[in-house]
Amino acid sequence: MSKLTTPPVPAPDAVPCCPPLDERPLTAAEAERTAVMFKALGDPVRLRLFSAVASHPGGEACVCDISDVGVSQPTVSHHLRKLREAGLLASERRGTWVYYRVEPSVLAAMGRLLTTSAP
Amino acid sequence: MSKLTTPPVPAPDAVPCCPPLDERPLTAAEAERTAVMFKALGDPVRLRLFSAVASHPGGEACVCDISDVGVSQPTVSHHLRKLREAGLLASERRGTWVYYRVEPSVLAAMGRLLTTSAP
DNA sequence: CGTCAACATAGACAGGCATCGAATCAGAGG
DNA sequence: CCTCTGATTCGATGCCTGTCTATGTTGACG
Fold first, then answer.
1. Which of A21, B76, B77, B106 is most enclosed, with most CB atoms within 10 A?
2. A45 with A72: CB under 8 angstroms?
């Protein structure tokens, strides 16, 4: 089958969403969707993995480059999957290695959520 | 005792911290501290409570104004405590009511974490 | 004082989640 | 074809946490 760069995970949801948090109270549905992204960054290991990918030269990194975070390699894979399911990272296999990169629009959307409109 | 506006919770930690996530890989200690704040916003109920406080006129709200989020009153109190322990909210008792307000510096610090330096 | 309302705390329970070892899959190279 | 390395998936386990009911604390008001 033409299964080249198809994501092996079910849903790539958690698209950019919602106004700044101090503009209007979020609805239940908005909060549900937004919390997924914050929760994904709410783990120290995932935060280090995300930061490692985001700060890597070229904007992408293979798993072997960022696996040194103090947990087993399956656990690293598990956390990278979570970040991908939350829409924060995208992955692509090139030969032997799998490369992860940051989804830029989602990062900007999260930043906008925390940007206060009042001076 | 002189127990006026003293916070009844142990630690008010989770101060503003760390460079933007795409600048350098976070250390384990940095990630540990930063994850606390993201985890606090990683729950839909807490996100709605925080948004309700942040968007309230005057920048503060009493519990009775924001308690309509579909969970029991003790659960609301529990989540507000979590947000306070994470350093995102501050509370003050005035007469019968307790008012919560957003800790502005922390919000700005979180926004800076997600602000990419590259164009 | 006694009572009422607003919040907080305590304890219990269920579901979620981070972690690991073992097994499996996918390419590269002999 | 075999094997080695990189990475994901699987199943199990133990802790963390979100939720509730019940109770306690604090201040206002007769």
1. A21
2. no
